[in-house]
C-alpha cells in the first residue's frame, strides 16, 4: 500500500479527532486550522470542495466562534443530543459491548495511547479515542504490516457501523454550521474508506 495514501487517510482521522474533542486551547485550534488549510487543497469532488471552502471560512472567525458551535452540538445538554460513543449508537447506551471490543483491539495492538488533545478521561469506544487509535494504527502500518488487520477490524466493527449515524447527527443539528460542512467531508471520506475495504 502506498505510504502517501496511508498518510492521507491518517490525516482525515486526525481531522475527525479534532472535531470530537473539546478544543480549549488556541494551539490545538491552530493545528485544526492548519490541517483544514492543507486538506482543502485535495477535495474529493466539487461538493466537498465547497464544503472545505465554507469550513475554512468558518474557522477564520476564530476559536471562540468555533468553540461556541462545538459546545452547542457536542457538549452542552440540549434538545438535539449528538452521542459520541459507539456503544450509544449501536446499543442505545454508553459503556456497552463496543467498549469492551475497543479495549480488546487496543490490547492486541500493544500500543499505549495518550494525547495532549484529550484533557479528560474518555471511554475506549468514544469517538475521540477511536479516531486517535485509527490515526495511530495507520502511522504504525508504515513500519509494521500487522497493523493492517487491526485497522481493518477497527473500521469494519466501528466506523463502518455507526459513522453514518454520527455524520447525520451533526449535519442535521439545528445549530450546525461548521459541522454541516464537516459532515459533507466526513461523509465522502467514509464512503472512500468503504471502497478501500470493499464494503461499498
From TrEMBL:
InterPro entries: DMSO/NO3_reduct_chaperone, TorD-like_sf. It holds the Pfam family Nitrate_red_del. SUPFAM superfamilies: TorD-like (SSF89155). This is Putative formate dehydrogenase-specific chaperone.
